[in-house]
Protein backbone atom coordinates (compact mmCIF):
# COMPACT_ATOMS: atom_id res chain seq x y z
CA UNK A 1 0.00 0.00 0.00
CA UNK A 2 1.47 3.35 -0.98
CA UNK A 3 1.44 6.47 1.18
CA UNK A 4 -0.61 8.23 -1.50
CA UNK A 5 -3.18 5.45 -1.35
CA UNK A 6 -3.27 5.61 2.43
CA UNK A 7 -4.11 9.32 2.43
CA UNK A 8 -7.51 8.94 0.89
CA UNK A 9 -8.40 5.72 2.66
CA UNK A 10 -7.72 7.18 6.08
CA UNK A 11 -8.70 10.83 5.72
CA UNK A 12 -12.10 10.81 4.05
CA UNK A 13 -14.08 14.00 3.98
CA UNK A 14 -11.40 16.41 5.09
CA UNK A 15 -8.74 16.46 2.42
CA UNK A 16 -9.65 19.81 0.90
CA UNK A 17 -10.89 22.85 2.79
CA UNK A 18 -11.39 26.45 1.79
CA UNK A 19 -8.65 28.83 2.72
CA UNK A 20 -9.44 31.18 5.57
CA UNK A 21 -11.72 34.18 5.17
CA UNK A 22 -11.12 37.78 6.21
CA UNK A 23 -10.77 38.80 9.86
CA UNK A 24 -8.30 35.99 10.42
CA UNK A 25 -7.40 35.74 14.08
CA UNK A 26 -3.90 35.09 15.31
CA UNK A 27 -3.15 31.56 16.47
CA UNK A 28 0.53 30.80 16.67
CA UNK A 29 2.12 27.39 17.10
CA UNK A 30 5.69 27.20 18.29
CA UNK A 31 8.09 26.88 15.39
CA UNK A 32 10.47 24.58 17.27
CA UNK A 33 9.29 21.48 15.47
CA UNK A 34 11.26 19.44 12.98
CA UNK A 35 9.98 19.18 9.43
CA UNK A 36 8.58 15.69 10.03
CA UNK A 37 6.98 16.71 13.34
CA UNK A 38 5.27 19.64 11.64
CA UNK A 39 3.98 17.36 8.87
CA UNK A 40 2.77 14.92 11.55
CA UNK A 41 0.82 17.71 13.25
CA UNK A 42 -0.95 18.58 10.00
CA UNK A 43 -1.86 14.98 9.19
CA UNK A 44 -3.25 14.41 12.71
CA UNK A 45 -5.36 17.54 12.43
CA UNK A 46 -6.63 16.56 9.00
CA UNK A 47 -7.53 13.09 10.23
CA UNK A 48 -9.46 14.49 13.22
CA UNK A 49 -11.02 17.52 11.58
CA UNK A 50 -14.54 16.27 10.83
CA UNK A 51 -15.04 15.16 14.45
CA UNK A 52 -12.78 17.76 16.05
CA UNK A 53 -15.46 19.35 18.23
CA UNK A 54 -17.70 16.31 18.68
CA UNK A 55 -15.29 13.52 19.63
CA UNK A 56 -13.05 13.63 22.69
CA UNK A 57 -10.36 11.45 21.12
CA UNK A 58 -9.29 10.49 17.61
CA UNK A 59 -7.54 7.43 16.21
CA UNK A 60 -5.44 6.49 13.20
CA UNK A 61 -3.45 3.39 12.35
CA UNK A 62 0.10 4.01 13.56
CA UNK A 63 1.85 2.51 10.53
CA UNK A 64 -0.46 4.41 8.21
CA UNK A 65 0.37 7.62 10.06
CA UNK A 66 4.12 6.98 9.90
CA UNK A 67 3.97 6.21 6.18
CA UNK A 68 1.90 9.29 5.36
CA UNK A 69 4.27 11.61 7.17
CA UNK A 70 7.41 10.06 5.71
CA UNK A 71 8.71 7.91 8.56
CA UNK A 72 9.74 4.32 8.11
CA UNK A 73 6.48 2.52 8.91
CA UNK A 74 8.36 0.31 11.40
CA UNK A 75 10.05 3.23 13.14
CA UNK A 76 7.82 3.54 16.17
CA UNK A 77 10.60 5.15 18.23
CA UNK A 78 10.67 8.20 15.97
CA UNK A 79 6.89 8.34 15.95
CA UNK A 80 6.79 8.25 19.76
CA UNK A 81 9.39 11.00 19.97
CA UNK A 82 7.46 13.17 17.54
CA UNK A 83 4.17 12.70 19.41
CA UNK A 84 5.97 13.64 22.61
CA UNK A 85 7.24 16.80 20.92
CA UNK A 86 3.71 17.78 19.86
CA UNK A 87 2.45 17.26 23.41
CA UNK A 88 5.21 19.60 24.60
CA UNK A 89 4.53 22.23 21.93
CA UNK A 90 2.51 25.33 22.85
CA UNK A 91 -0.28 26.84 20.75
CA UNK A 92 -1.15 30.41 21.71
CA UNK A 93 -3.92 32.70 20.50
CA UNK A 94 -4.70 36.35 21.06
CA UNK A 95 -7.86 37.61 19.38
CA UNK A 96 -11.16 39.40 19.63
CA UNK A 97 -14.27 37.30 20.17
CA UNK A 98 -17.57 37.84 18.35
CA UNK A 99 -18.53 40.59 20.80
CA UNK A 100 -15.25 42.42 20.39
CA UNK A 101 -13.74 41.29 23.69
CA UNK A 102 -10.07 40.41 23.91
CA UNK A 103 -9.33 36.69 24.36
CA UNK A 104 -5.92 35.22 25.07
CA UNK A 105 -5.32 31.50 25.49
CA UNK A 106 -2.63 28.88 25.55
CA UNK A 107 -2.73 25.11 25.20
CA UNK A 108 -0.45 22.21 24.45
CA UNK A 109 -0.83 21.20 20.81
CA UNK A 110 -1.91 17.69 21.81
CA UNK A 111 -3.47 17.10 25.20
CA UNK A 112 -2.38 13.46 25.05
CA UNK A 113 -1.26 10.76 22.63
CA UNK A 114 -0.73 7.05 23.00
CA UNK A 115 0.24 4.07 20.86
CA UNK A 116 -1.44 0.76 21.61
CA UNK A 117 -1.98 -2.35 19.51
CA UNK A 118 -0.82 -0.58 16.37
CA UNK A 119 -3.21 2.36 16.79
CA UNK A 120 -2.39 5.97 17.60
CA UNK A 121 -4.99 7.63 19.83
CA UNK A 122 -4.75 11.35 20.56
CA UNK A 123 -6.76 14.38 21.64
CA UNK A 124 -6.81 18.17 21.61
CA UNK A 125 -7.90 20.36 24.49
CA UNK A 126 -11.54 21.51 24.00
CA UNK A 127 -10.51 25.18 23.71
CA UNK A 128 -7.86 24.49 21.07
CA UNK A 129 -10.12 22.09 19.17
CA UNK A 130 -12.70 24.85 18.86
CA UNK A 131 -10.11 27.27 17.48
CA UNK A 132 -8.60 24.76 15.05
CA UNK A 133 -12.03 23.80 13.71
CA UNK A 134 -13.05 27.37 12.87
CA UNK A 135 -11.96 28.14 9.27
CA UNK A 136 -11.93 31.87 10.09
CA UNK A 137 -9.18 31.20 12.62
CA UNK A 138 -7.14 28.30 11.34
CA UNK A 139 -6.67 26.83 7.88
CA UNK A 140 -6.03 23.19 7.13
CA UNK A 141 -2.85 22.54 5.19
CA UNK A 142 -3.10 20.33 2.11
CA UNK A 143 -0.97 17.30 2.95
CA UNK A 144 -0.13 16.80 -0.73
CA UNK A 145 1.46 20.25 -0.91
CA UNK A 146 3.33 19.86 2.37
CA UNK A 147 5.13 16.83 0.92
CA UNK A 148 6.99 19.22 -1.40
CA UNK A 149 8.76 20.92 1.51
CA UNK A 150 12.23 19.83 2.57
CA UNK A 151 12.87 22.32 5.37
CA UNK A 152 11.01 23.00 8.58
CA UNK A 153 11.43 26.75 8.20
CA UNK A 154 9.86 26.70 4.74
CA UNK A 155 6.85 24.69 5.88
CA UNK A 156 6.46 26.84 9.02
CA UNK A 157 6.39 30.00 6.91
CA UNK A 158 3.91 28.44 4.48
CA UNK A 159 1.56 27.47 7.32
CA UNK A 160 1.65 30.93 8.84
CA UNK A 161 1.07 32.67 5.50
CA UNK A 162 -1.43 30.27 3.94
CA UNK A 163 -4.16 31.12 6.41
CA UNK A 164 -4.02 34.77 5.28
CA UNK A 165 -4.32 34.11 1.55
CA UNK A 166 -7.80 35.63 1.37
CA UNK A 167 -6.72 38.83 3.09
CA UNK A 168 -3.60 39.22 0.95
CA UNK A 169 -1.23 39.96 3.83
CA UNK A 170 -0.17 38.51 7.16
CA UNK A 171 -0.20 41.91 8.76
CA UNK A 172 2.84 43.20 10.61
CA UNK A 173 4.69 40.83 12.94
CA UNK A 174 7.47 41.98 15.22
CA UNK A 175 10.75 40.20 14.54
CA UNK A 176 10.40 38.67 17.99
CA UNK A 177 7.12 37.00 16.98
CA UNK A 178 8.56 35.96 13.62
CA UNK A 179 11.56 34.28 15.27
CA UNK A 180 9.16 32.32 17.49
CA UNK A 181 7.14 31.21 14.48
CA UNK A 182 10.30 30.02 12.77
CA UNK A 183 11.61 28.32 15.90
CA UNK A 184 14.81 30.36 16.16
CA UNK A 185 13.96 32.50 19.17
CA UNK A 186 16.63 32.27 21.82
CA UNK A 187 19.40 32.08 19.22
CA UNK A 188 21.94 34.88 19.48
CA UNK A 189 22.90 34.25 15.86
CA UNK A 190 19.43 35.10 14.59
CA UNK A 191 19.14 38.21 16.74
CA UNK A 192 21.04 39.77 13.83
CA UNK A 193 18.57 40.71 11.08
CA UNK A 194 21.32 40.16 8.52
CA UNK A 195 21.64 36.51 9.56
CA UNK A 196 17.88 36.07 9.96
CA UNK A 197 17.26 37.41 6.47
CA UNK A 198 20.03 35.43 4.79
CA UNK A 199 19.52 32.07 6.50
CA UNK A 200 15.81 31.97 7.33
CA UNK A 201 13.68 34.54 5.46
CA UNK A 202 15.14 34.34 1.95
CA UNK A 203 15.46 30.52 1.77
CA UNK A 204 12.01 29.98 3.31
CA UNK A 205 10.34 32.49 0.95
CA UNK A 206 12.03 30.83 -2.02
CA UNK A 207 10.80 27.40 -0.94
CA UNK A 208 7.21 28.59 -0.41
CA UNK A 209 7.13 30.25 -3.84
CA UNK A 210 8.69 27.22 -5.51
CA UNK A 211 6.73 24.44 -3.82
CA UNK A 212 3.26 25.68 -2.90
CA UNK A 213 -0.01 27.13 -4.12
CA UNK A 214 0.78 30.66 -2.89
CA UNK A 215 3.40 33.29 -3.66
CA UNK A 216 4.69 35.54 -0.89
CA UNK A 217 6.73 38.74 -0.80
CA UNK A 218 8.32 40.00 2.42
CA UNK A 219 8.14 43.66 3.43
CA UNK A 220 10.03 45.27 6.31
CA UNK A 221 9.38 48.17 8.64
CA UNK A 222 12.18 50.00 10.41
CA UNK A 223 12.41 51.75 13.73
CA UNK A 224 15.27 54.14 13.29
CA UNK A 225 17.88 52.33 11.24
CA UNK A 226 17.02 48.81 12.36
CA UNK A 227 14.36 46.49 10.92
CA UNK A 228 11.74 45.88 13.61
CA UNK A 229 8.72 44.34 11.87
CA UNK A 230 7.99 42.05 8.95
CA UNK A 231 4.91 41.13 6.95
CA UNK A 232 4.28 39.00 3.89
CA UNK A 233 2.11 39.96 0.94
CA UNK A 234 0.32 36.87 -0.33
CA UNK A 235 -1.32 35.89 -3.59
CA UNK A 236 -2.36 32.62 -5.14
CA UNK A 237 0.28 30.97 -7.28
CA UNK A 238 -0.63 31.48 -10.97
CA UNK A 239 0.56 27.92 -11.63
CA UNK A 240 -1.82 26.50 -9.02
CA UNK A 241 -2.77 23.62 -11.30
CA UNK A 242 0.68 22.09 -11.10
CA UNK A 243 0.38 21.91 -7.32
CA UNK A 244 -2.94 20.09 -7.50
CA UNK A 245 -1.35 17.13 -9.21
CA UNK A 246 -0.98 15.51 -5.80
CA UNK A 247 -4.75 15.04 -5.58
CA UNK A 248 -5.83 15.73 -9.18
CA UNK A 249 -9.08 17.40 -8.06
CA UNK A 250 -10.10 14.49 -5.89
CA UNK A 251 -9.04 11.65 -8.20
CA UNK A 252 -8.04 9.59 -5.21
CA UNK A 253 -11.63 9.83 -3.95
CA UNK A 254 -13.01 8.12 -7.07
CA UNK A 255 -14.14 4.51 -6.96
CA UNK A 256 -12.35 3.83 -10.23
CA UNK A 257 -9.06 5.02 -8.68
CA UNK A 258 -9.46 2.62 -5.75
CA UNK A 259 -10.27 -0.23 -8.13
CA UNK A 260 -7.10 0.50 -10.11
CA UNK A 261 -5.03 0.39 -6.92
CA UNK A 262 -6.67 -2.93 -6.01
CA UNK A 263 -5.52 -4.29 -9.38
CA UNK A 264 -1.91 -3.46 -8.53
CA UNK A 265 -1.65 -0.25 -10.55
CA UNK A 266 0.68 2.35 -9.02
CA UNK A 267 -0.73 5.57 -7.63
CA UNK A 268 0.99 7.76 -10.22
CA UNK A 269 -0.08 5.56 -13.15
CA UNK A 270 -3.66 5.32 -11.88
CA UNK A 271 -3.96 9.10 -11.70
CA UNK A 272 -2.32 9.46 -15.11
CA UNK A 273 -4.77 7.04 -16.74
CA UNK A 274 -7.81 8.73 -15.20
CA UNK A 275 -6.55 12.20 -16.14
CA UNK A 276 -5.71 11.12 -19.69
CA UNK A 277 -8.72 8.93 -20.50
CA UNK A 278 -11.43 10.10 -18.13
CA UNK A 279 -13.20 8.32 -15.30
CA UNK A 280 -15.89 6.66 -17.46
CA UNK A 281 -13.48 5.30 -20.08
CA UNK A 282 -11.19 3.74 -17.46
CA UNK A 283 -14.21 2.28 -15.64
CA UNK A 284 -15.37 0.68 -18.91
CA UNK A 285 -11.98 -0.92 -19.48
CA UNK A 286 -11.86 -2.16 -15.90
CA UNK A 287 -15.23 -3.81 -16.43
CA UNK A 288 -14.02 -5.29 -19.71
CA UNK A 289 -10.92 -6.78 -18.11
CA UNK A 290 -12.98 -8.15 -15.22
CA UNK A 291 -15.12 -10.13 -17.67
CA UNK A 292 -12.21 -11.77 -19.48
CA UNK A 293 -11.27 -15.36 -18.56
CA UNK A 294 -7.81 -16.52 -17.58
CA UNK A 295 -6.27 -13.07 -17.15
CA UNK A 296 -2.93 -13.56 -15.38
CA UNK A 297 -2.03 -9.88 -15.00
CA UNK A 298 -5.09 -7.66 -14.67
CA UNK A 299 -2.93 -4.51 -14.53
CA UNK A 300 -0.99 -5.44 -17.67
CA UNK A 301 -4.16 -6.42 -19.52
CA UNK A 302 -5.81 -3.16 -18.48
CA UNK A 303 -2.84 -1.20 -19.77
CA UNK A 304 -3.28 -2.85 -23.17
CA UNK A 305 -7.08 -2.37 -23.07
CA UNK A 306 -6.69 1.37 -22.48
CA UNK A 307 -4.01 1.77 -25.13
CA UNK A 308 -5.77 -0.23 -27.85
CA UNK A 309 -9.38 0.56 -26.83
CA UNK A 310 -10.60 -2.97 -26.25
CA UNK A 311 -14.39 -3.04 -26.31
CA UNK A 312 -17.12 -5.27 -24.93
CA UNK A 313 -18.42 -5.46 -28.48
CA UNK A 314 -15.28 -7.34 -29.46
CA UNK A 315 -16.48 -10.56 -27.85
CA UNK A 316 -15.01 -12.68 -30.62
CA UNK A 317 -11.62 -11.06 -30.45
CA UNK A 318 -8.98 -13.10 -28.68
CA UNK A 319 -7.12 -11.65 -25.72
CA UNK A 320 -3.77 -9.99 -26.49
CA UNK A 321 -0.89 -12.25 -27.43
CA UNK A 322 1.56 -13.34 -24.73
CA UNK A 323 4.12 -11.03 -26.31
CA UNK A 324 1.78 -8.03 -26.04
CA UNK A 325 0.97 -8.93 -22.46
CA UNK A 326 4.67 -9.21 -21.69
CA UNK A 327 5.34 -5.78 -23.16
CA UNK A 328 2.45 -4.30 -21.17
CA UNK A 329 3.75 -5.92 -17.99
CA UNK A 330 7.26 -4.62 -18.67
CA UNK A 331 5.90 -1.08 -19.07
CA UNK A 332 4.02 -1.48 -15.83
CA UNK A 333 7.13 -2.77 -14.06
CA UNK A 334 9.13 0.19 -15.37
CA UNK A 335 6.52 2.57 -13.98
CA UNK A 336 6.65 0.90 -10.58
CA UNK A 337 10.45 1.01 -10.61
CA UNK A 338 10.36 4.72 -11.52
CA UNK A 339 7.93 5.34 -8.65
CA UNK A 340 10.22 3.56 -6.20
CA UNK A 341 13.32 5.40 -7.41
CA UNK A 342 11.56 8.76 -7.17
CA UNK A 343 10.40 7.98 -3.63
CA UNK A 344 13.99 7.10 -2.69
CA UNK A 345 15.33 10.33 -4.16
CA UNK A 346 12.72 12.42 -2.35
CA UNK A 347 13.45 10.63 0.93
CA UNK A 348 17.19 11.22 0.54
CA UNK A 349 16.56 14.87 -0.33
CA UNK A 350 14.47 15.30 2.81
CA UNK A 351 17.10 13.52 4.90
CA UNK A 352 19.87 15.75 3.55
CA UNK A 353 17.81 18.91 4.18
CA UNK A 354 17.13 17.78 7.75
CA UNK A 355 20.87 17.25 8.30
CA UNK A 356 21.61 20.80 7.11
CA UNK A 357 18.89 22.02 9.47
CA UNK A 358 20.53 20.18 12.37
CA UNK A 359 23.93 21.65 11.44
CA UNK A 360 22.42 25.16 11.37
CA UNK A 361 21.01 24.64 14.86
CA UNK A 362 24.34 23.34 16.15
CA UNK A 363 26.19 26.32 14.69
CA UNK A 364 23.71 28.77 16.21
CA UNK A 365 24.53 27.46 19.69
CA UNK A 366 28.21 28.31 19.36
CA UNK A 367 29.57 31.70 20.39
CA UNK A 368 31.38 33.85 17.78
CA UNK A 369 34.84 32.72 18.88
CA UNK A 370 33.87 29.08 18.67
CA UNK A 371 32.26 29.57 15.25
CA UNK A 372 35.44 31.12 13.86
CA UNK A 373 37.50 28.25 15.26
CA UNK A 374 35.09 25.70 13.80
CA UNK A 375 35.42 27.23 10.34
CA UNK A 376 39.22 27.31 10.49
CA UNK A 377 39.34 23.70 11.66
CA UNK A 378 36.99 22.56 8.91
CA UNK A 379 38.85 24.50 6.20
CA UNK A 380 42.12 22.94 7.32
CA UNK A 381 40.69 19.53 6.50
CA UNK A 382 39.74 20.47 2.93
CA UNK A 383 42.40 19.66 0.35
CA UNK A 384 40.66 20.86 -2.81
CA UNK A 385 40.75 24.57 -3.72
CA UNK A 386 37.24 24.40 -5.19
CA UNK A 387 35.89 22.89 -1.97
CA UNK A 388 37.53 25.61 0.12
CA UNK A 389 36.18 28.35 -2.13
CA UNK A 390 32.70 26.80 -2.01
CA UNK A 391 32.81 26.68 1.80
CA UNK A 392 33.96 30.30 2.06
CA UNK A 393 31.02 31.30 -0.13
CA UNK A 394 28.23 29.17 1.34
CA UNK A 395 29.53 28.27 4.79
CA UNK A 396 27.87 25.36 6.57
CA UNK A 397 25.17 25.16 3.87
CA UNK A 398 27.75 24.28 1.19
CA UNK A 399 26.22 21.51 -0.93
CA UNK A 400 29.58 20.54 -2.42
CA UNK A 401 30.95 19.83 1.06
CA UNK A 402 27.79 18.26 2.46
CA UNK A 403 29.27 14.89 3.41
CA UNK A 404 32.35 16.46 4.96
CA UNK A 405 30.18 18.95 6.90
CA UNK A 406 27.95 16.19 8.27
CA UNK A 407 30.98 14.11 9.27
CA UNK A 408 32.60 17.12 10.96
CA UNK A 409 29.55 17.92 13.10
CA UNK A 410 28.88 14.26 13.86
CA UNK A 411 32.39 14.10 15.33
CA UNK A 412 31.92 17.41 17.16
CA UNK A 413 28.51 16.37 18.51
CA UNK A 414 28.17 12.57 18.73
CA UNK A 415 24.57 11.56 18.29
CA UNK A 416 23.59 14.80 16.50
CA UNK A 417 22.08 12.89 13.60
CA UNK A 418 20.77 9.88 15.51
CA UNK A 419 17.13 10.81 14.79
CA UNK A 420 17.82 10.12 11.10
CA UNK A 421 19.54 6.76 11.50
CA UNK A 422 16.44 4.62 10.99
CA UNK A 423 14.38 7.02 8.86
Overview of this protein structure:
This protein has about 425 residues and is of the alpha+beta class. The protein has 4 domains: about 1-135, no CATH class; about 140-255, Winged helix-like DNA-binding domain superfamily/Winged helix DNA-binding domain (Arc Repressor Mutant, subunit A); about 260-320, no CATH class; about 350-420, no CATH class. About 50% of the residues lie in helices and about 15% in strands. It has 18 helices and 9 strands. The protein has a 3-stranded antiparallel beta sheet with strand order 1-3-4, covered by helices on one side. Helix 1 packs across helix 3 (about 60-70). It is globular. The protein starts with a helix and ends in an 11-residue tail after the last helix. About 30% of the residues are buried. One of its GO terms (molecular function) is DNA-directed DNA polymerase activity. This is Initiator Rep protein WH1 domain-containing protein.
Amino acid sequence: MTSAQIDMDQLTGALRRETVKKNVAAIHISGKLSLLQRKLSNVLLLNAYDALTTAQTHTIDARTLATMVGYNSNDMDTLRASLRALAETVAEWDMLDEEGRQEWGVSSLLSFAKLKSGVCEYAYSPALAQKLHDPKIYALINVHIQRNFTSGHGLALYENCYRFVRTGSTGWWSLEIFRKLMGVDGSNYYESFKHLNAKIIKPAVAEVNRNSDIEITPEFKKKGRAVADIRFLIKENPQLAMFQIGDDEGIRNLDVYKKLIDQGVSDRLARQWISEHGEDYVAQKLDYVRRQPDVKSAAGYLNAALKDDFSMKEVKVKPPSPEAMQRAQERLDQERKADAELDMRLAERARRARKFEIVSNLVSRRNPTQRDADKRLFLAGLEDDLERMEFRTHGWQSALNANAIFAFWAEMNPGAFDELEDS
